[in-house]
Design goal:
about 20% strand, about 70 residues, 2 helices, alpha/beta
Length: about 70
């Protein structure tokens, strides 16, 4: 059983130079949190920047930022 998923943002969840994840990525994040998996985003971006990209994780995600 997966309990935690940690990932980077730029070049991993979204293409370099973009600020929008694909609908597939956003839906996968929602499905994972609905199944009880904690989603953590680790990035050199600021907290505000990460929340701007993934607002649906604001109350359920973990953010490791700049």
């Amino acid at each position: 059983m997966i309990k935690l998923m940690v990932t980077d943002v730029d070049g991993t969840l979204i293409p370099e130079g973009s600020s929008d994840p694909s609908p597939v990525i956003a839906e996968t994040m929602r499905e994972m949190t609905a199944k009880g998996v904690t989603v953590a985003i680790a990035s050199g971006r600021s907290y505000e920047s990460i929340i701007g990209v993934f607002p649906e994780l604001r109350d359920v995600g973990v953010f490791i930022s700049d």
